[in-house]
Design a protein that fits this description.
By secondary structure, the chain is an alpha/beta fold. The chain is built from 15 helices and 8 strands. Strands 2-1-3-4 form a 4-stranded parallel β-sheet, sandwiched between helices. A 4-stranded parallel β-sheet has the order 6-5-7-8, with helices on both faces. The longest helix has 17 residues. The protein is globular and about 55 Å long. The two termini are about 35 Å apart.
């Protein structure tokens, strides 16, 4: 079975390593991702905070494209894209007026039925844990991981339907399958500040510091994420956080697909590990993973 692939803007730019590692892992698992032809930006945060109809029409237009191209399932690794696609689909299905308006704006039908999966759902629900456990050839033994879910993957829970919004476990389960240890910690669903990083940088520094501190206090060697915005704040801002609070911050932040890729024996250089600002190589070498 092939899946319609919606990378979104971030995975073609600032989160290229998320895109690369996602494709490499799926290739290894024989999960065929076919990029939706002529996809457009889902609008992310700016669209739905500026214009409600635009915030629904933009992501739904991508679902219309997917349906027209014969896909019954769309996979979106970016948490923001996943959130907007799911939200748009929900709004159109639950409001006749919204469906009519979106159809008018996009010039296409709205009576479509396309499943929307995050990449981690693809691994859990389509490939399955039992099969995954059998294919990991390079266990990540000794590595302690704080799995960070953030906001957009889980909320609103009625729409996202990914996992328990207060105590999600899907990333923890995937991590444990690799042979690494998922550590329990208190900030796995706290907000990092997301797109406030530009207009309200100080708020993001404070929020990100608390998340990283919680992970370190739990004994984590690395933090795993499934969201480009979360990765940007937690990885890129550590030097600023250290300067502001007078402490050393050097906790590597990896995409969950990069961890899965390492456990599958994929060449680390192809997974984009060298693209992070906080170098993960020293920790991975110390754990004899590299």
């Amino acid at each position: 079975m092939n899946y319609g692939y919606f990378p979104g803007c971030s995975l073609h730019a600032t989160a290229k390593e998320f895109n690369d590692s996602t494709k490499l892992v799926c290739d290894k698992l024989d999960l065929e991702l076919k990029e939706i032809d002529k996809w457009i930006c889902c609008g992310a945060t700016p669209a739905h905070t500026t214009n409600q109809e635009l915030g629904i029409a933009l992501p739904f237009a991508n679902l219309q494209l997917a349906a027209d191209q014969g896909f019954d399932t769309v996979v979106a690794p970016c948490a923001a894209c996943f959130n907007r696609l799911r939200s748009a689909d929900f709004e159109v299905k639950h409001s006749g007026y919204t469906a009519e308006r979106v159809g008018y704006i996009t010039g296409s039908r709205t009576d479509i039925n396309v499943r929307i999966l995050h990449i981690i759902q693809l691994f859990r629900d389509e490939y399955g844990y039992s099969r995954l456990k059998e294919v990991f050839s390079k266990p990540l033994k000794g590595l302690k991981v704080a799995n960070y879910y953030g906001c957009l993957l889980l909320r609103p829970s009625l729409v996202m339907k990914l996992d328990d919004p207060e105590n999600p476990v899907i990333m923890d389960e995937l991590t444990n399958l690799t042979g690494a240890e998922s550590v329990p910690w208190a900030f796995k669903t706290e907000c990092c500040g997301a797109s406030l990083a530009i207009p309200e940088t100080e708020i993001v520094l404070d929020l990100s510091k608390k998340i990283i501190d919680s992970a370190k206090n739990a004994g984590a060697d690395v933090i795993a994420v499934a969201c480009p915005l979360c990765h940007a704040n937690l990885d890129m801002r550590q030097k600023q956080i250290g300067k502001k609070f007078g402490a050393d911050y050097s906790t590597p932040v990896l995409y969950i697909t990069q961890l899965l890729g390492l456990a599958l024996g994929i060449d680390p250089s192809k997974l984009g590990l060298d693209s992070h600002l906080v170098d993960p190589y020293p920790v991975l070498r110390a754990k004899n993973i590299l």
